[in-house]
Amino acid sequence: MSNVVLEKVSRVFGDFVAVDGVDLRVSEGEFVTLLGPSGCGKTTTLRMVAGLEQNTGGRISIGNEVVSDAGRGLFVPSERRRLGMVFQSYAIWPHMTVFENVAYPLRVRRKSTAEIGDLVGKALRLVEMESFAERPAPALSGGQQQRVAIARALVFEPKVLLLDEPLSNLDAKLRLQMGDEFRSIQKRLGMTSLYVTHDQAEAMALSDRVVVMDRGRIQQIGAPEEIYRYPANRVVAAFFGTPNLLEASVEACARIDDRRVRLDVVGKGWRGACESASEIRPGQAVTVMVRPEDARIAPPDAAHRDHELRWSGQIAHTIFRGPTRSVVVQTGDGRLNVDAPSFGDFAVGDNVTVVVPQTSAWAVPEQASIAS
Ligand SMILES: Nc1ncnc2c1ncn2[C@@H]1O[C@H](COP(=O)(O)OP(=O)(O)O)[C@@H](O)[C@H]1O
Ligand SMILES: [Mg+2]
Question: Where does the ABC transporter domain start and stop, copy by copy (predicted)?
Answer without folding.
Answer: 4-240
